[in-house]
DNA sequence: GCGACAG
DNA sequence: ATCTTGTCGC
């Protein structure tokens, strides 16, 4: 029997409703390790086109530990909510969720561009996505949303705690010397320490871990792959698997 | 009331 | 996030 998972909640574009949802969902986020064998890791990132009118979600699936790309999905969807600090997931997840529906392989771990629980109400985009898909997830942010931290030693692999309201919500990790550190945090079913470990394991020669870096390249850059299909050929095609 | 503010 | 060329430095 195929049972279709019921969605966590109805979507909304109302700020107050979104905040209320975050408060009720945050307690359900699992902050300890509840992760099995990892065969595939997904990198998730969102980009925008036409001045923000269109949201472009990209999911890259990599095999572990080879880190070879085994699948990529690019999905476009009309943007229906503005960017509001703290409500990022409500703007970017709709497109991402539809991208996941296109996958032929479900990953065992997610690495999302943005915060996990390092969020004012402890439900950043990585936590929200992990909770929705019920998959282990790690938040990989490039800048700070909230919380305070000491200066990070300029040595690859070193990190300091990110604290907010008397609680450690993440870690600020130096993934490359002389380069701005990354803000790592639990998304779902992965502890902070394990999250940092996975990020380090996925580093090559760049600032970002491979899953996020690959997704980022495709989502942000307007290259040959990012090219929209010919309007005359297939006007309705907004999804590309390659 | 005054800043701060993921992508 | 996005608009954008070249340029300085490890």
In short:
The record marks 83 as: Interaction with target DNA. This protein is α+β, with helices and mostly antiparallel strands.
Please tell me about this protein's structure.
The structure is a single chain. The chain is an alpha+beta fold and 242 residues long. The chain has a single domain (39-224), classed as archaeoglobus fulgidus dsm 4304 fold (2-Layer Sandwich), CATH 3.30.2170. 22% of the residues lie in helices and 26% in strands. It contains five helices and nine strands; from the N terminus they run αβββαβαββββααβ. The protein has a nine-stranded mixed sheet with strand order 6-7-8-5-4-1-2-3-9, with helices on both faces. A hairpin with a 2-residue loop joins strand 6 (159-164) and strand 7. The longest helix has 13 residues, at 88-100. It is globular. Residues 230-236 have low confidence and may be disordered. The protein binds two DNA strands through residues 45-49, 51-52, 83-86, 88-89, 91-92, 113-115, 118-120, 124-125, 139, 141-146, 177-178, 183, 219-220.
Count of beta strands: 9
- H/E order of the elements? HEEEHEHEEEEHHE
Report strand %. Answer: 25-35%
Q: Any idea what the CATH superfamily is called? A: archaeoglobus fulgidus dsm 4304 superfamily
Q: Which structural class best describes the helix and strand composition?
A: alpha+beta
Mean pLDDT: 92
Please give the CATH architecture.
2-Layer Sandwich
> Which sheet architecture does the biggest sheet show?
9 strands, mixed
User: What does the overall shape look like?
Assistant: globular
Helix content: 10-25%
Straight-line N-to-C gap: 30 Å
> The CATH topology is what?
archaeoglobus fulgidus dsm 4304 fold
Write down the CATH class. Alpha Beta
> What is the number of independent domains?
1
Strand order of the largest sheet: 6-7-8-5-4-1-2-3-9
Please give the radius of gyration in angstroms.
17 Å
Low-confidence stretches: 230-236
In DSSP terms (H or I, runs of 4 or more residues), the helix count works out at: 5
